[in-house]
Amino acid sequence: MKEFDIIARYFKERSHVRRDVQLGIGDDCAVVNVPQNQSLAVTTDTLVGGVHFPNDTPPRAIAHKAVAVNLSDLAAMGAEPAWISLSLSMPDVDEHWLDEFSLGLQELTEYYSVQLIGGDTVKGPLSITLTAQGFVPKDQALTRAKAKPGDWLYVTGTLGDAGLGLDMLQGRMDVPPKHRNFVANRLNYPTPRVLVGTVLRRIASSCIDVSDGLIADVQHILNASHCGAVLQVDKLPLSEAMRDSVLAEQGIRYALTAGDDYELLFTVSEEQKGNLDLAMATASVSVTCIGQLNGVQGKLELRDGKERYAFEGKGYQHFS
Ligand code: ADP
Ligand code: MG
């Protein structure tokens, strides 16, 4: 099968269609319309086989994850997703692989009403680069830089499950049978917190998604906002699967350092706390207060109750 046939069969035919796309796949560029009074939020992520996912990961999961991690970045800005582009590098044309991959892509694009508007298809090592674009009302984008001392630190969902899932799949950890699907899905099929992100626009002072690990991502907010924080390890939200699989201390380690959870980490001022509770009452995801910001620039202190919690270890960094 040739490049143009691949594009037509797997990507053009399976695209969800949006009205703000004047011209989608097939010409030299896509042509799209941005609504008035909205800014465009744009993000790109690359997933490389053997680095970001084991090479034998199901293609449907690879597609899901490629879209989800990008939508998670949009969510962390409070943006509503609209369009994605896909640059796909693969060693050969494996029709079964392409079929599963493009179905995975279709599942997510339809669920989130996002249109695949273009891309590139080349021969090379397995690698997926996805760009996502979304709308956020002018001047309402949630950044990392506007947290203030006194703000409360929150996180959605539970932490560390994806890391536990990876260790389980690679044979380093044992997870009780009834939780195996859950942790594998948390790794392979992360849920971007799109709706929460848009709700937080008027409530949160800063926001980031947890991709590198909690400590690393809290630190990004602290550095950008010139604040410090106390983080309560006794408040970290751990799933039942995590609690049933590991000792408390190991659960904390997963929650603090494992990446890939794609939960939202955000700060809320004392005045906005009531609004957060109201807004989250109807949301399908839990939020947990895990600490508070202070004026000690850039310093993150961990506590267990009132005691200092000694901890060595950081999040994941390439080239380190
Ligand atoms: P060009 O040579 O002008 O860059 P291509 O032959 O690379 O065009 O692509 C033809 C059309 O197919 C373009 O609209 C491009 O955006 C789209 N396209 C190519 N690869 C993909 C892909 N993997 N997913 C979605 N659209 C793609
Ligand atoms: Mg091209």
UniProtKB/TrEMBL annotation:
Mg(2+) 1 binds at T44, D45, D120. Mg(2+) 4 binds at D28, T43, D73. This is Thiamine-monophosphate kinase. Its EC number is 2.7.4.16. Substrate binds at H52, D260, Y316. HAMAP family: TMP_kinase. SUPFAM superfamilies: PurM C-terminal domain-like (SSF56042), PurM N-terminal domain-like (SSF55326). Mg(2+) 5 binds at D212. Mg(2+) 2 binds at D45, D73. Pathway: Cofactor biosynthesis; thiamine diphosphate biosynthesis; thiamine diphosphate from thiamine phosphate: step 1/1. The keyword Transferase applies. It comes from Bowmanella pacifica. InterPro entries: PurM-like_C_dom, PurM-like_C_sf, PurM-like_N, PurM-like_N_sf, ThiL-like. Pfam families: AIRS, AIRS_C. GO terms for biological process: thiamine biosynthetic process; thiamine diphosphate biosynthetic process.
